[in-house]
Amino acid sequence: GNSVTQMEGPVTLSEEAFLTINCTYTATGYPSLFWYVQYPGEGLQLLLKATKADDKGSNKGFEATYRKETTSFHLEKGSVQVSDSAVYFCALGAGGTSYGKLTFGQGTILTVHP
Amino acid sequence: DVKVTQSSRYLVKRTGEKVFLECVQDMDHENMFWYRQDPGLGLRLIYFSYDVKMKEKGDIPEGYSVSREKKERFSLILESASTNQTSMYLCASSLTVSPDTQYFGPGTRLTVL
């Protein structure tokens, strides 16, 4: 079946540091890949997505590239801010008759200190 | 602006009670989903619905049921609440059958005593 594995957290960084959160997946066919963010006390919201190999999703300074050869979709940001403190989820959507279902990773807690 | 609302942010119930969690979306989306979120386990799909009165089991349906009588409303029912159902419950909706952005509600934190 489909699965998503994220790097173990929590991750603690100082403001303006470089961020990488690793995400690898297992899926048949050609899934779409997503990063969601959950700020404290809120539901999840889409951060970025990519629908085919070599696509780069980007939003709010975050980027991730769909790498089919390494089955990865790592999230990066060049300079994090305190306001980026949140839980980050990698997810995949397999298409076909999945009715839009997404498979989520376990989430990575990011804390950014001033 | 798209919106998914859930009936309660916090809920406390007793073991054995019947619990209803309500979710409403105003985007005319076809698909609706119920997840539970637990630390270290991410989001796990309980049930989903791709049309009115249609429902499919997700990965962890045991102890839960759902109802979708109208397109905009999707209810999660705990027939007899147990302490291991203490969790954060998240509702989401999406437009198409293709892998697509899901829009989430704010969540309901349920505590079963």
Structure description:
The complex is a heterodimer of chains A (114) and B (113). By secondary structure, chain A is mainly β. In chain A, 0% of the residues lie in helices and 50% in strands. Chain A has no helices and twelve strands. Chain A has strands at residues 3-6, 11-14, 19-21, 23-26, 32-38, 44-50, 56-59, 62-65, 75-77, 86-93, 102-104, 108-113. In chain A, the strands form three sheets. In chain A, strands 2, 5, 6, 10, 11 and 12 form a six-stranded mixed beta sheet that branches. Chain A is globular and about 45 Å long. The mean pLDDT of chain A is 92. Chain B is mainly β and 113 residues long. Helices cover 0% and strands 57% of the residues of chain B. In chain B, strands 2, 4, 5, 6, 9, 10 and 11 form a seven-stranded mixed beta sheet that branches. Chain B has a four-stranded antiparallel beta sheet with strand order 1-3-8-7, with no helix packed on it. The chains are: A mainly beta (114), B mainly beta (113). At the A-B interface, β5, β6 and β10 of A face β4, β5, β9 and β10 of B.
List the helices and strands and how they pair.
The complex is a heterodimer of chains A (114) and B (113).
Chain A: E1 3-6, E2 11-14, E3 19-21, E4 23-26, E5 32-38, E6 44-50, E7 56-59, E8 62-65, E9 75-77, E10 86-93, E11 102-104, E12 108-113
Parallel strand pairs in A: 2-12
Antiparallel strand pairs in A: 1-4, 3-9, 5-6, 5-10, 7-8, 8-9, 10-11, 10-12
Chain B: E1 4-6, E2 10-13, E3 19-25, E4 31-38, E5 42-51, E6 54-57, E7 64-70, E8 73-78, E9 87-94, E10 103-104, E11 108-112
Parallel strand pairs in B: 2-11
Antiparallel strand pairs in B: 1-3, 3-8, 4-5, 4-9, 5-6, 7-8, 9-10, 9-11
